[in-house]
Amino acid sequence: MMASFGHGTRRHPRSRGRTWSRTGPDRATLGIIGVICAVAGFFVLGIILGPVAIVCGWLAMGRTWAGSRPATAVVALVLGAIDTLLAIIWLSGATTLGNGMLF
Fold first, then answer.
1. How far apart are CA 60 and CA 84, in angstroms?
2. Distance CA 58, CA 30 (A)
3. Measuring CA to CA, which of 32, 34, 82, 102 is 20 to 30 A from 24?
4. CA distance 49 to 17
5. Cβ distance 46 to 90 under 8 Å?
6. pLDDT, greater one: 30 or 64
7. Is 6 buried (19+), middle (13-18) or exposed (0-12) by CB count in 10 A?
8. d(CA 14, CA 71)
């Protein structure tokens, strides 16, 4: 019974593009989630939603800077970075003089 030695079905168990688990969200969905978090972060909880948008944008880009990048991923990354920066500035109190008082 050694006729099929070395030529079993386990030679190529999966196709080349399907080597990861497909249970999570895909890149397009992550880009859209990142943009929504970044826009919402301008209004509420920017210190939390900004980094979430950055992570979603980074994962939507495929965790690399090379190659073609989806527009939603780049928008999520950039808006998330701006959102995080503005939240840090706002939390440090550098945007208001004297806690909002004029004099």
1. 19
2. 9
3. 82
4. 32
5. yes
6. 30
7. exposed
8. 30
Q: Is 27 exposed, middle or buried (0-12, 13-18, 19+ CB in 10 A)?
A: middle
Structure tokens of 71? 């527009």
The type of residue at 46 is: G
Distance CA 38, CA 25 (A): 18
Q: Show the tokens assigned to 46.
A: 């920017």
DSSP 9: T
First to last CA, the chain: 94
**Which token pair is 60?**
């939507």
